[in-house]
Specification:
The chain has 660 residues and is mainly α.
Length: 660
């Protein structure tokens, strides 16, 4: 068997192809070249089925490589393999893989038809593997027969057990999957849970109050030395209970909403006059599904990529914060949708979870984002789209995304993260903030952008929808298990007390609680992960434990980013935290100056030509002056001089072209 060495550039969807020889990467190329077909080996085998986008898989990979090396030193007969389920989905389906990472063991005589034996990731160690694989062969067929015998003894068939499992799940999880059912069954509690109860409970982050108080004092002293003063607001309760500017802009009937709508109309009319494409804004209805404007990311033009490498100029070609947000959220949504298909669409519960998730995204993501085209297409053709996995996958491909990689803000080379988990957290934060901004979708109905039949989500209903989608479609098994266990415990982050079931609540604080709840959950996850990472290290043979300083380092927002988020005692000010979340995940739209906002039929050739000419001038002057000076400033001064004489330059260029 020939083992192929594949570079990481050629195989971005693999974890082990170019990083180690201890783990053999399964590769079956379209041209017929096949390598490391684990099912054809006769030796004992350990096979990990994974997704390169699964954070737990990425973190587990280094441990898996270490175990493979240590095991081979003791017993070289045991072979280790890795299979990317993103690249070989059908193969993973054959082995009934429904979550990642999954470890299967194969014995000496297990042939191509064996399904192996599944073990927990925590069990994997050289001693354990050697002991279990030295015993009789792993015979999945015999195990299945034994299971069948047990079933017969109990006098139950598989269908009975399925029904029983569903009944147990319903009994243990009264949340359910239908938001309408969930809200109607909780009418008596609609006005009990909410912001009022949230205020009388302690936040899980209160244990850091003293440390945060010290951090804040040091920060203020440092700012004071540089002569910078910060005015702190004391009325945190008022900030928490009142509507923010963003909430007002999304609420029909407010002055802010009318001003924003008028700005859109003016921008559209100006564009239509400029390009001789008249749009009657007085009669046109601005429905979300046919808005005459949108926001999308696009691949940078060649001159933008080139200019991005020139010092002092590259900052002009950087992606804006909102463009990064659109990119990361859209990519993670698509990847989660595609990878989640491996968990199946056959069951009614899975389809219901997906339908509710798409409905939630439709009313919570900023309505001008281009990703709505895919979301709305799936919603409007849901029964057809979910006939089978291939149909849904084909529809997704009909809406290709311009960029293939996440933004720099979602790349963490130190932690070997590829951006997916970062983008998915951004997606969840935008959804929860969007629930606050749009009052669960009611604002979109009131403004006429969506029909009265549109599903409206209460804060609790939106949280349930997130929970059920992750439960049915999130392939990272440890991530999924931790989140569901955390969610189903009402005492964790006071979820059951603080999230209201009232879809018609008039209290802004009730709607803010959902995003504040998710913010606490995100920080809890970050703290748990840093504890796990520190716990894997040792000092002089003693296992390390995470300090308060370690934990504070991963909590957001940091004092540097939001000094107003803390009071003088180191406690979080919820109103200011929500404002921070709103600024970060719900960018304010100003149609007059928003360069990312594109009006359909709006030409861009002149703008591109202007950028091209400017780039050529800067590049030419830079290459001339850098021979005489290391400073780029001379290039910029000379370029500015030429650009200021743009009229003469344009005339000269035009005359030359005419002469030619």
């Amino acid at each position: 068997m020939v083992i192929s060495e594949v570079s990481s550039k050629e195989s971005p969807d693999y974890l082990y192809a170019s990083t180690t020889t201890a783990v053999k990467e399964y590769i079956s190329e379209e041209g017929g070249s096949q390598h490391n077909l684990f099912m054809e080996y006769k030796s004992p085998r350990v096979v990990e089925f994974y997704s390169p986008y699964c954070p737990a898989c990425v973190e587990f990979s280094s441990h898996y490589i270490e175990v493979a090396k240590n095991t081979s030193e003791i017993n070289h007969d045991i072979l280790f393999f890795g299979v990317s389920c993103d690249s070989y989905e059908k193969l993973c389906e054959e082995y009934d893989i429904e979550g990642y990472p999954t470890i299967l063991l194969f014995g000496f005589d297990d042939g191509p038809t064996s399904k192996g034996r599944s073990i927990e990731n925590s069990d994997i160690s050289p001693t354990y593997l050697i002991n279990i694989l030295k015993v009789a062969k792993v015979d999945a067929k015999e195990e299945e027969d034994d299971d069948d015998d047990d079933d017969d003894d109990d006098g139950k068939n598989d269908e009975d057990e399925e029904d029983e499992d569903e009944n147990e799940e319903t009994a243990s999880n009264p949340i359910g999957l239908s938001n309408s059912e969930n809200d109607s069954s909780a009418d008596d509690k609609s006005f009990i849970a909410g912001s009022f109860k949230a205020r009388i409970k302690h936040n899980t982050t209160d244990r850091y109050n003293q440390a945060l108080k010290d951090e804040k004092e040091r920060y203020l002293q440092k700012r004071h030395r540089f002569g910078k003063k910060i005015v702190l607001k004391d009325d945190g309760k008022a900030i928490y209970e009142e509507m923010t500017k963003g909430m007002k802009q999304a609420s029909p009937g407010t002055k802010e909403f009318q001003d924003r709508q008028q700005a859109f109309i003016q921008r559209i009319e100006k564009s239509s006059r400029k390009h001789h494409h008249i749009i009657n804004t007085q009669t046109q209805e601005f429905k979300k599904e046919n808005l005459p404007y949108s926001k999308n990311t696009s691949n940078p033009k060649w001159f933008e990529s080139a200019a991005g490498k020139i010092p002092m100029v590259k900052n002009f070609f950087r992606m804006s914060e909102e463009e990064e947000l659109i990119l990361d959220v859209s990519l993670s949504f698509i990847v989660a949708l595609e990878t989640g298909l491996s968990m199946g669409l056959e069951h009614a519960r899975s389809k219901s979870a997906l339908r509710n998730w798409l409905d939630l995204l439709s009313v919570t993501l900023p309505p001008e984002w281009g990703i709505h085209k895919l979301i709305d297409h799936l919603r409007n053709n849901f029964e057809y789209a979910t006939i089978n996995r291939d149909t849904l996958r084909r529809i997704i491909k009909e809406y290709p995304f311009a960029r293939k990689g996440w933004s720099a803000s979602c790349q963490n080379k130190k932690l070997k993260l590829n951006g997916f988990s970062c983008g998915f957290w951004k997606l969840l934060h935008i959804v929860t903030v969007g629930v606050s901004e749009q009052r669960g979708g009611q604002n979109l109905i009131d403004s006429g952008m969506m029909t009265p039949e549109t599903e409206v989500f209460s804060p609790a209903g939106a949280a349930d929808t997130i929970r059920n989608y992750i439960d049915k479609f999130f392939t990272c098994r440890p991530c999924r298990v931790h989140f569901i266990e955390h969610y189903d415990d009402c005492n964790k982050n006071n979820r059951c007390d603080r999230l209201s079931n009232n879809k018609g609540s008039k209290k802004p604080a009730d709607w803010k609680e959902l995003s504040l709840w998710l913010w606490e959950v995100h920080n809890d996850v970050s703290v748990r992960l840093v504890r796990e990472r520190v716990g894997k290290t040792f000092t002089k043979g003693i296992k390390n434990t995470a300090s308060i300083k370690n934990e504070i380092s991963v909590i957001f927002p940091h004092i540097d980013n939001c000094i107003l988020c803390f009071d003088n005692d180191g406690k979080w000010i919820n109103g200011e935290v929500f404002r921070f979340l709103e600024r970060t995940y719900w960018p304010e739209v100003d149609p007059k100056f928003d360069k990312l906002l594109k009006i359909y039929d709006e030409g861009s050739s002149k703008a591109e030509l202007l950028w091209l000419v400017t780039f050529l001038i800067v590049w030419l002057v830079y290459n001339v002056t850098r021979k005489e000076s290391k400073s780029i400033h001379q290039s910029l001064i000379a370029a500015r001089h030429l650009v200021s004489q743009g009229a003469a330059f344009s005339i000269g260029l035009t005359n030359k072209s005419r002469t030619a």
